[in-house]
Structure formats: structure tokens, C-alpha cells
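$ run holo --ligand "adenosine-5'-tetraphosphate" --emit C-alpha cells
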Amino acid sequence: MKTYFSGINPSSTKGLHLGNYFGMAKPALDFQDKGSCIYFIANLHTLNSVYDPIEVKTNTEQVFMEFLALGLDPTKTLFFVQSDVPAVPYLQTILNNVVTVSELKLMHAYKDKLQNDVAADSISMGLFSYPVLMAADILFSNPDYVPVGQDQAQHVELAREIARTFNNRYGEVFKIPEVYLTKETARIKGTDGERKMSKSLGNDIPIFAPEEVIKKQIMSITTDPARIHPTDPGDPAKNVTFEYLELLGYDAAKVTDMKEQYKQGTIGDVEIKKQLFGHFMEYFADVRKKRAELDGNRDYLHELRARGAKQANEIAEATLKTVRRAVGV
Ligand code: AQP
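-- output --
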């Protein structure tokens, strides 16, 4: 049976967005019936961007609930919180020695910061070395596949490289995991219609936010800039609203019809966005309800978290024992 491993960084108070859902959560959750799954909340990674302890704690609990609401089945899947498993950062300390600074300088999280005019010397070690922590996250459970969105594929590649280097130096310890990308949904565009949907860019549509927040985000979607009036002909390819409607399985004939009207200038952007908003709320109605129910059941969540921690610790400690023996500590 194949093993699947993935996680999410609870770095925003807004929680999971449409990009996280189609890029990672949905494909990852679909594997629950096909193999053995290990999914986690990467709250140690959050520390490289969120400095308010209350926010870190609240976000962690929130995303934990959201994953469950989206369909994570704890009877099938090992589900845990990263900070509950200290063997993982211990493993990172060891893996730091099988990766070079020049390899880390090629990682997009670091390069993105530099592109945003942040001075290299002011970037924290946490951010710079987070791909090594991610390698430790992945490698401790020796998974076969890591389902992620396109932006994280490079980090999985690095984890593979780290595992290869480690194995060459110390003998076969780690399985080399494969990245799993769902081609059509690996990079969901943000509401600006260009960049990747991201919590930090503010171009996201959060799934569990209050209705008015979701509505505001949808109504702010950038559409064909050449179209000033609803009666101007527009280019559907320049309006990401249509992509979202298709992604969310909106009636295909209606989408085709709306695109035609868009080209002819017989439908307004507001009308299309209203359709998307209504459909979005309908599509996620059940999971939003489930999330609210889970929120009222804190004892169950604590019990689940403790159970996941126990199982993940057993696996991580066994791997760490092998790794420590291999390196001689
Ligand atoms: N727009 C996206 N399209 C497809 N997949 C995406 N993912 C994120 N955005 C998209 C995938 O979701 C998983 C969890 O992501 P994460 O939150 O841990 O980290 P991220 O990729 O850095 O997500 P954000 O929203 O862009 O966060 P910030 O702004 O904090 O950096 C990953 O598998 C990711 O690929």
C-alpha cells in the first residue's frame, strides 16, 4: 500500500483558501480511500511569518478544524500538529548537514523575499532553512507520494535531493518520495487573475471566512481591463471568475452561455460574480456547517490531536533512532 504525506502552514487568520483546497487538500483527501495517509498542520513553519503567539495558536486550531471539515477522516488518516512531534526538528538539525547554502539560495521562498526588495542579511534563518524543516517533515514517515501545489514542488525536489545525499553518505535510510501534482489544479490563480492565489498576497478566497469577507473578495476579482461598461465586448480568458466557476463544477452549458454573452457585451461582471458567490456558498455549505459543529466540540479535537501526536511520535522516533545510529550520535 502506498503512503501519502502532506501538510499546510496555518499562516493566516483567514484559514484555507480555494487554492489550498484544489491544489492540495482535495487531491490529498481523495487518497484516503486509496492508500495510507499522513497529513499535518505545519505550525513550526508559521513562526517564520507570524510573530503573535495567540495568532499562531488560534490559526493552528482553526486549520486543524478546517482540514477535518473538508473531509479528513481520522479513522483512516494519521493527522497531527507539527510542534507535537519534536523528533522532526531534531531530524532537521541532522539534515542541515546534507544540504548546502547554495542549494537553499535557489529555493523560491528565499528568492521571492529578495525579489520583494528585502535585504538578504535580514531574512531569518527560519525562512531560509524552512525547506530543510520541510524535508524532515516529509522524510520522517518515508512516504511514497507528496501531494502539493506547484509552488511547493521545488521543496519536495530538495527533500528528494537531501534524502539521496544522506543515503549516499550513510547508507539506505530514506525512501525517495515522489511529488504528486494534479496538473489542472496545481496553480490556482488569485483574484488578481495573474499571480498564484496566496494568503500573504491577499488575492485569496477563503473557504471558511464570514460570508461578507468571501463576497468582498469575489466582488474584487480583476476582470478584463479593456471592458469599461457591461455593454462592451469582453474576453472571457481575461476574467478568472469563469475559471473559478468551472473549477467549482458550475453548470458547463451555463458557463459557455455566459462566456458568449461576455464576448458580446450582454452580461455584466457583477452578474457573473454574483453567480460565483452564490455557487461558492452552496458548494462549501456542508463543510462550513461541519466546521462550525467541530468548533463546538473542543474535547473531541483535543483528544484527536493527542492521538495523532502519539502515533506520529512513534513513527518519527523510530526514524530518528535509525538516523542517529547512521550518523553516529
Ligand atoms: N494557489 C494555489 N494553487 C494550488 N495550490 C496551492 N497551494 C497553496 N496555494 C495554492 C498548496 O496548498 C498547500 C498548502 O499551502 P501552504 O499554505 O502551506 O503554503 P503556501 O503554498 O505558501 O500557501 P500560500 O497561500 O501561498 O501561503 P503564504 O502566502 O503564507 O505563502 C501546498 O501544497 C501548496 O502548494
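-- notes --
The CA atoms of residues 122 and 152 lie 23 Å apart.
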